[in-house]
Amino acid sequence: MKKKILVIGGTGFLGSHVCNEAIKKKYKVISVSTKKTEFKSIKDVKYITCDITNLNAINKKLNFDVDFVVNFGGYVDHTNKNKTYKSHFLGCKNLVNFYGKRKIKKFIQIGSSLEYGKIRSPHKEKIAIQKISSLKSIYAKSKLLSTEYCLKAFNENLFPVTILRPYLVYGPGQKINRLIPFIISKSIKNNEFACSSGTQLRNFLFVGDFVKAIFKTLTKKKANGEIINIGSNKNLRVKKVILMIKDYLNSGKPMFGKIKLRKDESFEYYPSIEKAKNLINWKPTVKFEKGLSITIKYFKEQSDKKNLKKN
User: Fold this and answer.
1) Which residue blocks in 1-73 are alpha helix, DSSP H?
2) Which of 6, 30, 126, 173 is the most exposed place for a label (fewest CB within 10 A)?
3) Which CATH fold would you assign to the domain 172-203+233-265+286-304?
4) Where does residue 61 rank: exposed (0-12), middle (13-18), buried (19+ CB within 10 A)?
5) What are the boundaries of each domain within the chain?
6) pLDDT tens-digit series, residues 267-285
């Protein structure tokens, strides 16, 4: 009998990649989201629309057994503080309460590196959880509240949850409003675009490596009740990334320094990934140059298709 995996937020960038991989691995896949898929529907994936902030809707629409749950759920426009809080925290809380009464093998909560706040890099999971009040954004606060709620469910009821904290995931299918797709899009058109000085040191992770980490975690009981950082082996200056994209496409006109760095912005933000290596036997395998090449080719193909339609 096929194992069932429920992907909350399965129509988004990360969720759709997980659904694709789960189909390849012969899982029975159910995607849950508040709207229909933004991408082409994946064959053999069952799509359900359900608002996870509504417990009645969960009880009605998700009243069936599954083996695994991966929670990417959350409102993407973080300027809407109410929806951000409800979707990222209340939604998680509802799911934990609902699946806490059912026999599931694993619940993976997708956390955020922003939960570390102003802690100095490299971030290590053993660092004491920060105070909610110390975090700046409602998104970070909501994610940290979710982490605390998940750990409480594990400590009190042995709820089989693992919290994964990814860093800057990139790859094919990501929205243009994210850093790497934005730079690629502008460079393909050979546009001028404003950017910061690019002196920030960041950790970029290819989506394929992140998906592998998720499936490694599904089968590791010893990861229950744990927070695990998921990042790459290599940290890069933002300016270098922009110039790599510009050089690869031989186009694009970055205007460095046009955007001021925020006063509260961390210049260095990256993880320790030793726990992931030791606990779930995972490490990144896709070098940044390779992942970037795959991503640029994807967006170039999408741009060419749009141009063909116009002509």
Assistant:
1) 13-24, 55-61
2) 126
3) UDP-galactose 4-epimerase; domain 1 (3.90.25)
4) middle
5) 4-169+205-230, 172-203+233-265+286-304
6) 999 999 999 999 999 999 9
pTM of this structure: 0.95
* Amino acid found at 258: K
> Would strands 235-237 and 168-170 be described as parallel, antiparallel, or unpaired?
unpaired
Alpha helices for the chain (secondary structure H): 13-24, 55-61, 81-85, 91-99, 138-157, 179-188, 207-218, 238-249, 274-279, 288-310
pLDDT at residue 311 tops 70 = no
For the stretch 111-157, pLDDT in tens is 999 999 989 999 999 876 667 878 889 999 999 999 999 999 999 99
C-alpha separations of 246 from 33, 178, 211, 222, 282 in Å: 35, 16, 28, 44, 32
264 contact partners, CB below 8 Å, separation of at least 6: 118, 136
Q: What is the CATH number of domain 4-169+205-230?
A: 3.40.50.720
For residue 266, what pLDDT is reported?
A: 85
